[in-house]
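Weekend entry, working from home. Most of the wet-lab plans are on hold until the incubator is repaired, so I used the time to fold the two sequences that have been sitting in the queue since the last round of cloning. Logging both here for the record. First:
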Amino acid sequence: MRFLNIGAYPRRKWLLALGLLALFLASSSVLVYQQIQKAAIQESIRQRVDSVTSLAFYSERELLRLDNAIANEISAPGGIDAERLRLRYDIFLSGMAWLRDSPSLGDLAQSKQYRGALEHLDAIVAVADPIFAQKVLARQDIDRLRPLLQRLEIDFMAFSAAATSLESREFETLSKKMLKQSNLGFGLLLTQLTLMALAVTALILRNRKRRAEQAALIELNEALRLAQEKADVANQAKSHFLANVTHEIRTPMNAVLGMTDLLLATRLDATQKSHTESIAKAGRSLLMLINDVLDFSRIEAGHVVFENTPFQLDDLVQSVCVIVEPAARAKDLVLRSFVRIDPGQSYLGDCLRLRQVLLQLLQNAVKFTDKGEVSVSIAGVARGLRFEVRDTGIGINATALTGLFARFSQADASSTRKQGGMGLGLMICKRLVEGMQGRIGVDSVPGVGSVFWFEVPLSRAPSTGTRSTLSQTPSAGALAGQKATPATDHAGKRVLLVEDNAINQVLALAHLRRLGLTADVADDGQQGLQAANAQAYDLVLMDLQMPIMNGLDATRAIRNGNGPNAKTPIIAVTANAMQSDRDACMAVGMTDFLGKPYSHEAFDACVLRHLH
């Protein structure tokens, strides 16, 4: 016993204890590290599941957005917004590219659900690319995509379910392996560290991709904003161009038609009268064509504003019948009108637009009817009023009826057709009626005749005890047949004519002299203002677009000044035919509005109305 180093035992025990403790700590550290590593791997798997789920959700969301955009465009009135659909389709394709190449798919890339979704996606692209490559999208074409999109939506749901199931199985398998490999120690630790590094790398890559997508979205939003600004500028330029075209065309047309009327009032032989009447007829046809083109441009630009003012039905019917009556009489046609409800009852609506539609239908009926009669009738229906124009003309076959209200469409579009035209009139009628929340249609039998009808939801206007007029400024046709007051009734009355166009000055002065009126002429707005401040006039005829000072500024200065004509009636006589021009005239204090070109009947009625 004495050879034993008793003092060494405590040291050995401490060394053993320290060794055991170190081993325990090492084992515990390994176990703890394994648990930490296991938790990290579980988090990585969860992130992968979230990534795949987000991928499926994003793809399904873009799919639904494209489907909803197509459904909205199909159900919306008017034309299809092709650019909006193409943008939505491009966004959808970018999301599908992510679906094809995402590193998060793993074994899911070999699943039948994923392959089935890609097959249906390829089928959609094969059908959709040719459709969206077209300049104009047709409803029937894009409607073909909806069943394919709905089938792909089902595939995405199956793909999402498969992803969840597969990832759950992978998690289970990995957990079992972790339990079996708990004795690998340091090797398992290194494996866990490697897996953690891979998970971090995947997270970094995903974050980078997400930042890139966010940057792409920001760039796309900026591009959309710039595109919207460019579109607004283009629309504004289009409006200015339309206004300038209106003025520049109507100004010489006023001279052509006005001088032709003056020439017809002189003594002409038969040949001269025939030639002059041909000029007048061609000029009126050209004016109708110009009006159709301008109306079409306004409708396409969305610049048509509908009013809601009171009017009488008999005024409306009389105004259109008076216009078409000479053409009907020339063809020995009977022109009839029937107002099957109280004709004196006032209704609220846009009487000018109603008159435009009714006049277009009546003119078409007279144009395509060679014998018999043409009639217009108004009757009450459940949703408002029904207007019908019936003729005994050539009729329209069933094939032509289907596209009759489309733009540039004609029942007879052949080069040998008897009647001309651009095919805009009925399209304009349809847009105007639909703009008034109504509907329009036609019933026709070839060789028997046609019935064009439209219904609009008009309400009765409250009684005011006075009779309302059709509009502030009657049309030329509506005033045909009205007799000018004899010249002796206006002896001594003076008119100030502010007009920069020399030919239109001659025309207006001729009309004023015929009415027995004395007139002074100013060549621009500044001269007109000086004349108005120097002498009192009974009436002022004011052009709008003039050099130095325009008619609006001159009228504003006259109204705001203390001159002798601050209360004198001022009539705008202008080729600016936009509704905004009329509103601007009323805003500065003008009394009435006479658009160029005008007939002598319209000129007489407008002038005499404000001299009484």
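Second, folded right after the first finished:
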Amino acid sequence: MLINTNPHLYFPRLALLVRDATMEELRQSRGGYRGSRRTLVWTAEHLAALPKYFPEAEEILRRLALAETEERIGNNATGVWKELFRIQLSGAAIPFPERIELLGRLLFSADIDQSALALAALTETLNFTGTRVVGPSVVAGQIVPSDWRPNTVREFQNCLDLILDLFDRVFERGTPDVRQKAWSALAADIRPLLAHGMLPALSGIAQRRSIPDACLPDVLESVEDFLQYECRSESGEVANDPYCRDVAEWLRALTPSDFARRLKAVIGKDPWHHSIREDISGIPSEIIPLAEELYRAPGKFEAVLPYLNSPDAASAGLLGDAVARLDPGGEELDRVLSAATVGSSNAFACGYVGRLVTIYPAAAGRLNTWLDRLEDVAPVLAFFVSLSAPEFSRPLERAVRLIKDGKLPVQSLQNFIVGVLLDRMSSADLSTVLELLLRAGDSQSLHIAVDFVGHSVQKGRSSDAIEREAMWRVLEVSARVEDRTDYWWVRAVEAFAPEAPERACRVAILGLTGDDYNKRKHAWGILSTLAKAHPDLVMATVGKALLDEEHGWRLRVGARSGFFQTLPLDSVRRWLTETGIEGARMIANHLQPPSVDAEGKPEIDPLTEYVLAKWGDDEAVFGRFAASTHHLQMYAGDIALAHRKEAERARPFLSHRIPAIRKWAGHEVTLGENRARRWTIQTEEQFLE
């Protein structure tokens, strides 16, 4: 393009066009490998590496990012633009202090969209482990300089100081929503920042700016992770290191002293964070002291119940479990379930109930009375609480009843796949579950139904005739549907095939003629396996499907299956004797083309030889066979050379005794030579400067 020949003249003009274009006009630029947007992004990305053109390149990428149309790829305009503001591996030779200064101006821009984009780039500045694809070494006739990077640890820390200073300005001047987003971004990287010695800067920011309560758990998690993984000694205590002791002291200062905020700071952490620290590292629990304080002070308990029944209380289930351990008589059951009824999360109630009935089974009667009442006023809560106490509250019975009454989504049944719940199902129970999921008819419900069947197969569950029939119905309905279940679907059909080969054949054919690509791909393998023991049955079933006017075309498209070569030649010949020319036309595109072995000797598959000798003069048979030779074939490397080799491999068959094979060979030689010639010319022209 012109920019490569004279960037000094043409690149500023391109930048002007992008600057003057409206957002709607920028969104009109097409994506894709050959699209104009890809060309714009790549051009700007490559020229951003040259300091002289960085300002225009940055602006082009920023404007395209504000009008992003390629959200599903990583190297879109947004991704490339954000990378420009990394400390290293930025794709820019401009020093980081200059780039972060630009980012600061954009952050406090009056343009809300531009400010939001800049905040995302500020987050990217803390990406210390990111990678990027290396661009060309020469751009527009100029050698590309190396990306800027700090030369010393002190210089790197200076860059971090600049980043944290910018965060500090956001905390000072940003709106509450922007401040919370910035704190969430910073919290995720506090551990590596501490590892780079940035405690003074971080503690200074925390002292000057208030950490939002919603972000405090994430901040504490990051600090605790640093102490656990970077500062933990062999004894399990914080290492006797001044810096680590200072971090531990900062953690204590960050932890709220008042009960309500301390509760939110601890219970707002991810439950896995608590589990790893306590179960693996042996660090004393933060939750048990909170539970003890709650249990001793009913007033405090009542006050924090709304929070404990909200989605913000990520570890509420662990606290509920701890409270139940202190309440062996179930005195708090009514209070817990009553509060959960008006809450938006059931984790605390489930944790409490699950532990309570384990240590105090006598509470089951009161629990079921509550659950019966909740089925009318809070059916989802009733379901999940019953699920937390499966041995005492009949969760499957309740789920089926609630689903039939329209009070619970049928997809809730997926909760019974895990653990021992599936093992405890009777044959009638599982059949009912599968029937409900099939009746729903949507792909998600069908996915869950196949999951039930697959896990039953994996567990070696013995099925009676009623249950097995329900499983077969699930596999039949799923066969033609794109429901992302190909893994379990294939394994279930293979597991059931030995006892019902005819039905397995029919189900595999349904898969071959359906909309799920992966099932179509694997169905040929199922049929090939069945053919080892039942070749005539499989050939008859596949043959009938091939001749089906409505769905047979699906078996004739796509790459060669290799299936017919796994069948005994006599089985295929008998079917061809019955179907004649129509049968030959149906399998022509599945025939293996002639080839040469490692020693260069010509080889022809017996089925190919039989069909072409008998029906090779038929235009449809020959046309489908010839067209399938390279159908969906992928090429890489020297493509011109690959086509020349194809022509050479076909040349020995120019004198074959079967006319159709000679005709095929002539076609292959001509086609290969022509394609090789075109690719040679295209390659030479493509790399002309």
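Plan for Monday: verify the second prediction. Strands lie at 138-139, 142-143, 595-596, 602-603.
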